[in-house]
Write a sequence for this structure.
C-alpha cells in the first residue's frame, strides 16, 4: 500500500479523554497500529453475549458454590452441562454501585440504564447530566470490548478490530432516552454506539473477502483489481484531506481507517485463510430488518434458524480470524419480540419439562407466569451452549479449541426486573488464556467492573488502571477465583 | 414477578418527578439565559412553565456563521442520492446512523465504522453492475462508448460531477484515469475497467460525505456547488440535479433572485416530498409509528396497515400546511384532509369502503388530535397522560425537562382501561413530583378521551366516565393558567405559547443545518424567529429566509471536535 498515513492514535486519544486509563509503554504508544501488531502474540478472543430483560437470581444461581463434583448447574443452565468443565458461574456481580452509593439502583423508567452499564460500568444518565446533554443525545461509557479493540496488544492483526452482532428484528420502546442505550451494549466512544449486524447475509459478505475457495488466477486477478480500486479511493481522499478543517479531517481519518480494514482483508492472500476454504454456508432467506420487521417466528422467519446461522457465522468469523472481539446481543433490551418459537416449560429443582404451549413476548412473560420468562431464558441458554460447542469443535492449534482461546461472557444487565445486583453471569471457555473452569463462585457482592479489570490485566497483560465508575468508592480488585 | 410490568409502566408514566423542574432548561442553559431575558425564576415552577429561551426581545438581526461539520450521507440520503444520480435504488444498508436532537442528519452521529464502509463499497458494486446492465441507465452513465482516452476522461468528468456534486480537480481526475489504465494493464476489458472506476467514484469520500473545503481564516462564502448541495439536501435529501449544477457553474446562486428561482423550482419538484418525509417524519414521529408497540390484546383492531395510514396522515397534514403556505402552527390547528378509510372508526367517522378516502375535519384534523400523535404518546397497553403532556412540552414547545430521579415511588395503577385520574391526583400531591407533573399531567389528562390508539371513548372499561376538563399550569401570557377541555384545549395551550413558534423554528433549523441547535446556532434561531414575528410566515417563507441568510451561504470549519 502506498505511503498513506492513517492516524491510529486519534481514537485512543479520544478514549483517554473519556476516562479510560491505560498506560502504554512509551515507545509502543508512539508506534502506529500496524507495527505494534506485528510484534505481538494472537489475542485471546472476547465474546460478550447479552440477553435482555434479566432473570431473578433464584432461577440462575446454582444451589451450592464449589468446584468439580461439589456443584451442579441450576435447571435453567442445564443446557450448558456438556461444557460444565469449561465454565464458571459467577454469582454476585452488580452494577448497582454504578448508580448509587448504596448500590440500590432501582429507579424510574430506567431499563435502558442496565444494558448500557453492562459492558461499560457507567451511568449514562449521570454522564448526560454532567455534560449538560439533552435526553436525545447519545452518551455512555466506552464498553470493555471496545477498550480491548483499541488498546489490547495485537488488535491490529485482524481485518476488523471488532464486530457487533444481534438477533433483534423489531424495535422496542426507548423511554425518552437514546435508543442506542437499549440496542447496543458496545460503545466505541462515549458518543458512538457500535451498531449491530443483524442480517446474516451482511456478516457473510464481510467474510467473503476473507474466504477464498482457491488460488486460481481469476481470484488473484480479482484481488488485484480490488486492491487497485481501494488504493485509488484512498488516494482520492488524500487529495482533499488538506482542504478540510481539523474536525473534518478526523472524520476523514475514520473513513480511511475503515478503508484500510477492507483493504487488509483483500490483500490477505488465500494462504492466510487455509482454515476457511470450505465456507459452504446456507444463506438465510429474508432477514433484512430494514426492509421488514419480524415480530415473531412464522413461515418466513424463524428465530431459531436465525440464531443457528449467526452461530455458524460467528464460528467462521473466529476460524477465519476476521476479528477476535465480537459482542452479541440475543435481543435488545425492552424487545417487543414474541417468543412463539419457545415452548413453555415447568421448572423444578431437578430440571425442567416442556409443557407444550408457546411462549409470548418477553414483556408478557414479565406480566405472566414466572415459568414463562424462565422458559424463554432457558431457550437462549441452549443457543449459547450450542454456539460454544461449535467453537469447542474447532481446532485452534496446540491442542486447544477455539473455545479454549475465547472468553465467552454470557449474561444480562438485570436480575429481577430493574434490579442490578446478582447479575446473571457465566464465563465460558478461555482455558487456554488461563481461566479456571468447572466452578460456581459466589462473590457475595462484587462490582462487575472487577471482571473487566481482571481480564484486561491478568489475561490481556494490559495496564488498565481504571474502568467504569463505582459510587461506593470501592477500589478495583482482581477476581482471582477466575484464574488458574 | 406478578404484575411487575404493570408496576413498571406505571412508574414510567408517573415517575417523571423531579424537584429540579424549576430549573427547566433549553439545552442545559438556565431558562431565559439563551436570549438574556425572559425572567425565568430559579425555583418557581410557574415561571418555568411559561418562559423559554426564545421569548426575549430582538437581537442583532444578522445571522452569524457557525462552525459546521462534514456530513456523511445517512441511509435516507444515500438511497435518494443513488436513486437520483444512477437511476437505481441501492440495496438497504445497515450502516450506523444515529439520531441527535431528534434527527438523523447530524454529522456527529454519522460515523464510518469498518462494517459501514464495507456496505457502501459493496452497494456501489451492486448498483453499478445493475445499472450498466440496463440499456437506458448505461447510456446515462457512459455518454460515449469507445475506449479512447478522451472518452474515458469524459466519463470520469461527467459522472464525477454528478457524484461529487462539483467538477473533479485535476488531481482527482488523474487518480481515476490512472485507475482505468492500471486495470487495463491487469487485462481487464474496457467495460470491466470502467465499471470498477465507477465503483471507485461511488465509494469515494467525496461522494459519501458532503464536503465543504475549509477556510482557515474565518467565515467565507460557499462556492456555487457547495451552496447547490446544501440546497438540494435540504429540500430533496439528495444531490443537485443537472440544472442546479449548471446554475452553480454559472455562479447564479450568489444572486438572491436566481437563488429564489431555484428554490421555487426545487419545491415544485416531486423530490421535495422527501423534505416532508424526513423532516416531519422525524419531528412529528410519522416514521416511528410503524414500529411503535401496540398490545394486540388491548387494541386488537390495530394492524400494520393502520399504522402506515396513521403515519401517512401525519405527513399529509404537514404537507398540506406546507403546500397551502398556511401558517406554520396550523399543523396543530389542523386543516381538513382526507384519510384512509381504515382510520375512519378511530376518528368516529362512519365506516367507508376499504381503500377509499374519508374527510377528517375539526379538532381532530390537527396533529394533536391525530391517531398518529395519540398513539405514539401512549404505552402499548394504555394511555399515559404524563407522557403525552411531556411530549407536548418537550417536542412541540422545546422545554426540555430533566429525566426523572432515582428512588421514586412506584405506583400501581392496575389493569388497562381504568381511570388514572385518582392516581395522578395523589401523585401530584407529592411536592417532589408535583414540580414537573403539574406542568405536563393536565395536558395529558385533557386528552384522556382518546385511548392508546387514538380512538374516542366516553368512559373507561370500569365504567367510570372520563372527564377531560383540566386546569393547566400557568405559562407566558396566562399567568393564572387556563381551564380547558379536550384536544381543542391542548391546541389552545400550544399555539398560544410564544415558545411554540420558537420550537418549530428551532426544529426546522436543526434539520436544515444538520447541526445542534445550541450555542451560536441558538442565536441564529432567534434571528430567524425575529423575522417570523414580523408577520406569521409559512414554512416555505421560513425556509426561504434561512436559505437567503448567512447561515446557509457561508462556511466556517470547526477546528476541534465538538
Amino acid at each position: 500500500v502506498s505511503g498513506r498515513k492513517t492516524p491510529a492514535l486519534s481514537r485512543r486519544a479520544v478514549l483517554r479523554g473519556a476516562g479510560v486509563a491505560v498506560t502504554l509503554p512509551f515507545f509502543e504508544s508512539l508506534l502506529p497500529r500496524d507495527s505494534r501488531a506485528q510484534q505481538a502474540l494472537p489475542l485471546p478472543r472476547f465474546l460478550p453475549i447479552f440477553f435482555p430483560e434479566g432473570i431473578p437470581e433464584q432461577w440462575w444461581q446454582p444451589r451450592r458454590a464449589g468446584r468439580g463434583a461439589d456443584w451442579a448447574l441450576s435447571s435453567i443452565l442445564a443446557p450448558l452441562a456438556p461444557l460444565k468443565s469449561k465454565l464458571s458461574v459467577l454469582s454476585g456481580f452488580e452494577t448497582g454501585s454504578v448508580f448509587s452509593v448504596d448500590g440500590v439502583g432501582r429507579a424510574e423508567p430506567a431499563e435502558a440504564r442496565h444494558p448500557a452499564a453492562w459492558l461499560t460500568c457507567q451511568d449514562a444518565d449521570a454522564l448526560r447530566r454532567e455534560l449538560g446533554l439533552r435526553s436525545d443525545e447519545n452518551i455512555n461509557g466506552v464498553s470493555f470490548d471496545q477498550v480491548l479493540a483499541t488498546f489490547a496488544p495485537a488488535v491490529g492483526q485482524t481485518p476488523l478490530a471488532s464486530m457487533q452482532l444481534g438477533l433483534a428484528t423489531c424495535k422496542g420502546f426507548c423511554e425518552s432516552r437514546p435508543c442506542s442505550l437499549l440496542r447496543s451494549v458496545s460503545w466505541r466512544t462515549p458518543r458512538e454506539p457500535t451498531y449491530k449486524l443483524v442480517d446474516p447475509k451482511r456478516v457473510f459478505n464481510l467474510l467473503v473477502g476473507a474466504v477464498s475457495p482457491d488460488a486460481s488466477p481469476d481470484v488473484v486477478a480479482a484481488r488485484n483489481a480490488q486492491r487497485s480500486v481501494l488504493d485509488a479511493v484512498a488516494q482520492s481522499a488524500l487529495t482533499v484531506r488538506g482542504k478540510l478543517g481539523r474536525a473534518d479531517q478526523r472524520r476523514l481519518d475514520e473513513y480511511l481507517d475503515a478503508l484500510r480494514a477492507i483493504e487488509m482483508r483483500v490483500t490477505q492472500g488465500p494462504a492466510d485463510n487455509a482454515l476457511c476454504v470450505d465456507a459452504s454456508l446456507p444463506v438465510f432467506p429474508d432477514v433484512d430488518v430494514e426492509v421488514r420487521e419480524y415480530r415473531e417466528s412464522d413461515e418466513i422467519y424463524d428465530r431459531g434458524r436465525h440464531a443457528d446461522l449467526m452461530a455458524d457465522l460467528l464460528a467462521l468469523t473466529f476460524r477465519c480470524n476476521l476479528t477476535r472481539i465480537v459482542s452479541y446481543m440475543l435481543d435488545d433490551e425492552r424487545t417487543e419480540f414474541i417468543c412463539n418459537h419457545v415452548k413453555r416449560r415447568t421448572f423444578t429443582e431437578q430440571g425442567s419439562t416442556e409443557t407444550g404451549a408457546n411462549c409470548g413476548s418477553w414483556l408478557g412473560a414479565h406480566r405472566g407466569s414466572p415459568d414463562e420468562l424462565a422458559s424463554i431464558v432457558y431457550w437462549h441458554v441452549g443457543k449459547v451452549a450450542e454456539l460454544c460447542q461449535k467453537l469447542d469443535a474447532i481446532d485452534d492449534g496446540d491442542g486447544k479449541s477455539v473455545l479454549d482461546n475465547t472468553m465467552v461472557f454470557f449474561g444480562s444487565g438485570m436480575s429481577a426486573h430493574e434490579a442490578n445486583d446478582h447479575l446473571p453471569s457465566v464465563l465460558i471457555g478461555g482455558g487456554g488464556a488461563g481461566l479456571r473452569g468447572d466452578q460456581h463462585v459466589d462473590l457475595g457482592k462484587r462490582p462487575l467492573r472487577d471482571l473487566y479489570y481482571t481480564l484486561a490485566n491478568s489475561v490481556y497483560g494490559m495496564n488498565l488502571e481504571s474502568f467504569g465508575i463505582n459510587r461506593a468508592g470501592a477500589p478495583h480488585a482482581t477476581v482471582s477465583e477466575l484464574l488458574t | 414477578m406478578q404484575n411487575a410490568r404493570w408496576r413498571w409502566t406505571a412508574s414510567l408514566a408517573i415517575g417523571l418527578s423531579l424537584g429540579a423542574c424549576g430549573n427547566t432548561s433549553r439545552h442545559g442553559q438556565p431558562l431565559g439565559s439563551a436570549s438574556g431575558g425572559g425572567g425565568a425564576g430559579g425555583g418557581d415552577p410557574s415561571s418555568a412553565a411559561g418562559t423559554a429561551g426564545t421569548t426575549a426581545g430582538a437581537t442583532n438581526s444578522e445571522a452569524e456563521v457557525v462552525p459546521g461539520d462534514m456530513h456523511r450521507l445517512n441511509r435516507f440520503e444515500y438511497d435518494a442520492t443513488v436513486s437520483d444520480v444512477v437511476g437505481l435504488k441501492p440495496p438497504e444498508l445497515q450502516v450506523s446512523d444515529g439520531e441527535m436532537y431528534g434527527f438523523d442528519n447530524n454529522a456527529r452521529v454519522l460515523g464510518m465504522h469498518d462494517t459501514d464502509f464495507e456496505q457502501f463499497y459493496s452497494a456501489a458494486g451492486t448498483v453499478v453492475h445493475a445499472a450498466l446492465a440496463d440499456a437506458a441507465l448505461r447510456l446515462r452513465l457512459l455518454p460515449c462508448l469507445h475506449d479512447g482516452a478522451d472518452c474515458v476522461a469524459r466519463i470520469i468528468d461527467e459522472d464525477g460531477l454528478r457524484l461529487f456534486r462539483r467538477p473533479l480537480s485535476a488531481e482527482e481526475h488523474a487518480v481515476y484515469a490512472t485507475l482505468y489504465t492500471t486495470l487495463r494493464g491487469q487485462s481487464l476489458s474496457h467495460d470491466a475497467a470502467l465499471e470498477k472506476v465507477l465503483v471507485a467514484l461511488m465509494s469515494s469520500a467525496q461522494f459519501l460525505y458532503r464536503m465543504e473545503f475549509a477556510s482557515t481564516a474565518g467565515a467565507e462564502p460557499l462556492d456555487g456547488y457547495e451552496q447547490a448541495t446544501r440546497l438540494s439536501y435540504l429540500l430533496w435529501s439528495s444531490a443537485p440535479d443537472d440544472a442546479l449544477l449548471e446554475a452553480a457553474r454559472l455562479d447564479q446562486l450568489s444572486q438572491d433572485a436566481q437563488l429564489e428561482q431555484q428554490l421555487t423550482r426545487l419545491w415544485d419538484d416531486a423530490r421535495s416530498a422527501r423534505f416532508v418525509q424526513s423532516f416531519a417524519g422525524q419531528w412529528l414521529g410519522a416514521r416511528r409509528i410503524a414500529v411503535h408497540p401496540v398490545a394486540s390484546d388491548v387494541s386488537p383492531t390495530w394492524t400494520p396497515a393502520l399504522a402506515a395510514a396513521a403515519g401517512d396522515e401525519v405527513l399529509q397534514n404537514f404537507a398540506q400546511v406546507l403546500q397551502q403556505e398556511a401558517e406554520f402552527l396550523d399543523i396543530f390547528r389542523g386543516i381538513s384532509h382526507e384519510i384512509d378509510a381504515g382510520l375512519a372508526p378511530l376518528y368516529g367517522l362512519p365506516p367507508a369502503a376499504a381503500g377509499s378516502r374519508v374527510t377528517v375535519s375539526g379538532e381532530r384534523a390537527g396533529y394533536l388530535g391525530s391517531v398518529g400523535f395519540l398513539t405514539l404518546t401512549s404505552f402499548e397497553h394504555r394511555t399515559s397522560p404524563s407522557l403525552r403532556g411531556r411530549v407536548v412540552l418537550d417536542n412541540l414547545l422545546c422545554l426540555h425537562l430533566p429525566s426523572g430521579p432515582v428512588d421514586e415511588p412506584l405506583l400501581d395503577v392496575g389493569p388497562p382501561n381504568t381511570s388514572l385520574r385518582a392516581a395522578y391526583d395523589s401523585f401530584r400531591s407529592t411536592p417532589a413530583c408535583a414540580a414537573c407533573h403539574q406542568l405536563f399531567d393536565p395536558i395529558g389528562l385533557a386528552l384522556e378521551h382518546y385511548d392508546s390508539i387514538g380512538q374516542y371513548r366516553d368512559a373507561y372499561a370500569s365504567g367510570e366516565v372520563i372527564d377531560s376538563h383540566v386546569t393547566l399550569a400557568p405559562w407566558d401570557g396566562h399567568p393564572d393558567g387556563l381551564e380547558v377541555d379536550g384536544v381543542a384545549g391542548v391546541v389552545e395551550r400550544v399555539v398560544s405559547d410564544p415558545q411554540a413558534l420558537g420550537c418549530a423554528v428551532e426544529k426546522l433549523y436543526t434539520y436544515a443545518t444538520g447541526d445542534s441547535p445550541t450555542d451560536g446556532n441558538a442565536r441564529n434561531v432567534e434571528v430567524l424567529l425575529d423575522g417570523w414575528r414580523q408577520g406569521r410566515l409559512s414554512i416555505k417563507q421560513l425556509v426561504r429566509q434561512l436559505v437567503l441568510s448567512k447561515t446557509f451561504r457561508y462556511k466556517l470549519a470547526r477546528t476541534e471536535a465538538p
In short: Chain A is about 35% helix and 15% strand.
